[in-house]
């Protein structure tokens, strides 16, 4: 079982985390960088990080 599940609820929770981190720590947060680099981060979550960054 992988650390990050791709079930719809888990992905929605991860997207919510991305939004919260972006607002509290900024879009250049090291946590968001780590999620982008982590191979098991779902594509929808990576896309949201890039969207938050305006890319």
How is this structure best described in words?
The protein has three helices and no strands. It has 55 residues and is mainly alpha-helical. The N and C termini lie far apart (31 Å). The longest helix has 18 residues.
The N- and C-terminal alpha carbons lie at a distance of: 31 Å
The helix content, as a percent range, equals 55-70%
How many distinct beta strands? 0
Please tell me how large the radius of gyration is.
Answer: 10 Å
Largest sheet: none
Element pattern in H and E: HHH
**Annotation field: number of helices:** 3
- Model regions low in confidence, pLDDT < 50 over at least 5 residues: none
SS-derived structural category: mainly alpha
Indicate the proportion of strand residues.
under 5%
What is the approximate shape? globular
Mean pLDDT: 88
